[in-house]
Design goal:
Radius of gyration: 19 Å
Number of helices: 7
CATH topology of the largest domain: Nucleotidyltransferase, domain 5
Largest sheet: 5 strands, mixed
CATH superfamily of the largest domain: Protein of unknown function DUF3822, N-terminal domain
Structural class: alpha/beta
Distance between the termini: 21 Å
Number of domains: 2
Shape: globular
CATH class of the largest domain: Alpha Beta
Amino acid sequence: MQETGNNTNRFDSSNLQQYTLSIRLSADGFSFFVYNSGNKNDFFYKVYPVNSQRSMAANVKLFLNDVPELKHSYKQVNILIHSERYTSVPLELFDDDDAELIFYQTFPKLNNEIVMCNVLNGSNIAILFSLDKLSHVFLSEFFPDARFFAAISPQLELLKNRANKWNNRKLYANLHAESIDVFCFDKGKLLLVNSFVCHNVTDRCFYLLGIWKQCSLDAERDELHLLGSKTEKDELAEALKKYIRSVFSVNPLAEFGSSGLKNLEELPFDIQSLLLCE
């Protein structure tokens, strides 16, 4: 069942109860990944374009109706919501009953959304995020046992675990077509997590160098790690090496060894993070 892109001719729907389905919903497109954790060469990834003139709920409804691979039973279904509309709260200050109150201290209130929470014990924070109510209804009815995640959550857990292994400070940047997710750690301690809308190398340099200064990172000793599209990583790395000594382009899936997954760099890093946190 190893396929990428839009070719589903060899999609094998037998024994899918052994597989995990991870769906990623974003304003710039939907995608899904089917994976057998018992066989790292057995996977399928597909991108589904969205109509920007329609609401998220309308796109979700079409997605669920149009894609035959979603209509099977899976061992687990994960739904990742990629959006800049999230906030983090230290666990010692978090009370689930106050989730909406805390969330709307950060963002203007919308009447048609539901506020959800991911508790990240490894990072000792809660991530509050939102999804419009109608999309949540469609998805919950279609996948009654699905787990909902802010796309930032698995990234943060994975990078926190990795940052714990080092004694210097690290800034990670995950590049998307229209935005960037940024994580900063000092010897494994989270200093900052945030996302920004940005469209080009100049904007990305502006945000990353600003955060580098804000977190008092050392241009000679500390490190910047770039994740995402190889072309975009290479272009941004070239621009940033004028200011930061240690800039690295990272492919986390390389650790899957001989598995075909290691070459699937188009797989979004938030979905990669779910795999690597298993």
